[in-house]
Amino acid sequence: xxxxxxxxxxxxxxxxxxxxxxxxxxxxxxxxxxxxxxxxxxxxxxxxxxxxxxxxxxxxxxxxxxxxxxxxxxxxxxxxxxxxxxxxxxxxxxxxxxxxxxxxxxxxxxxxxxxxxxxxxxxxxxxxxxxxxxxxxxxxxxxxxxxxxxxxxxxxxxxxxxxxxxxxxxxxxxxxxxxxxxxxxxxxxxxxxxxxxxxxxxxxxxxxxxxxxxxxxxxxxxxxxxxxxxxxxxxxxxxxxxxxxxxxxxxxxxxxxxxxxxxxxxxxxxxxxxxxxxxxx
Length: 281
Description:
With 281 residues, the protein is α/β, with parallel strands linked by helices. Helices cover 32% and strands 23% of the residues.
């Protein structure tokens, strides 16, 4: 075991709040931890195209993206798994046939379906409100996804996953049945309430990606700490020696974590870094 740790941070609800804002204390915590010799990686459902310059500007050692389908250490790509072009076409056609609006997630960009902006507006606000964001009613699709491409090509071969607005929970169940060879999930607001469904590469998770990164680094699980806020982060918790859930996180994630810190928008990440000895309080 080393005194230098490898830290994995979920982004939404952990590093940034539910309005997408980055707390100053979180930036301070990451920069101080790296100055102390610790490595810090984000581990997120976002694809690389959603890791905007303000996040890289914090100073990061790399990223896990697409809930584990992509791993980067500095400028080196360690793992990159895509949906096939055939699966992309089949998913797009199926969602169109159901009248479900969606966006395609790749490291080259986010590509919205024809009416995603109008349909997802209320859902994005519900997501923010469910997480307790004070200005949820002001959230827009373009604020949530500032670089999203509208009117782009939807038949692609570079996708990490596809997210779609749920008209009902049955839409997720039907997607899981229609694409049994893919990984189907949901994400949303308070208490893991399902607002969106997603389809991605099978047999991947944040935990799997951490294992691959540790192999690449020649590092030990004993030196790892994970910070997250949602059920999708539980495999990351299980893959690391120590784990921490944000106080504003979901009940499943709080129960699975070794320790619970403060809320994301109340300096919770900074508090967690102090608790684990990554920085001084």
